[in-house]
Design goal:
With about 120 residues, the chain is mainly alpha-helical. The chain contains 4 helices and 4 strands, in the order αββααββα. A two-stranded antiparallel ribbon has the order 1-4. Strands 2-3 form a two-stranded antiparallel ribbon. Bound molecules: zinc ion.
Length: about 120
């Protein structure tokens, strides 16, 4: 029974490590997070139009240190980072870009991009 328990823990840790690795590779190759004057999303904070980029809370450095020193806090920290991941503005990182077709989005376009049709 103890054997099964530790096997499950090892399996969970492996799954998270593989997930983190896959996420890292995806981020290396992922296009996006670019500013684009004709994009369909606008940032209410700075008025940048573009494709939202993936923003993760916390830092990878802390994550690695926690993993090296203590497995359990590292695990919790990784889970927290995964759960805090959001799509944010490519310019300022604010996680609440809205579509330019929405009423609020249209107001923002007028406010920040007055020269555009
Ligand atoms: Zn912004």
């Amino acid at each position: 029974m103890e054997m099964v328990g530790s096997l499950i823990i090892v399996f969970i840790i492996m799954a998270i490590l593989i997930g983190a690795l896959a996420d890292f590779i995806k981020r290396l190759f992922k296009q996006g997070g670019a500013t684009d004057r004709n994009a369909s999303m606008i940032c209410p904070n700075c008025g940048t139009r573009g494709t939202p980029k993936s923003v993760t809370g916390g830092s990878m450095g802390i994550e690695i240190v926690l993993w090296l020193c203590f497995i359990v806090p590292g695990l919790i920290y990784s889970l927290w980072r995964l759960s805090s991941k959001k799509d944010g503005c490519p310019a300022c990182g604010m996680p609440n870009m809205i579509g330019v077709e929405t009423p609020n989005g249209r107001m923002l376009v007028e406010k920040f991009h007055q020269n555009q049709p």
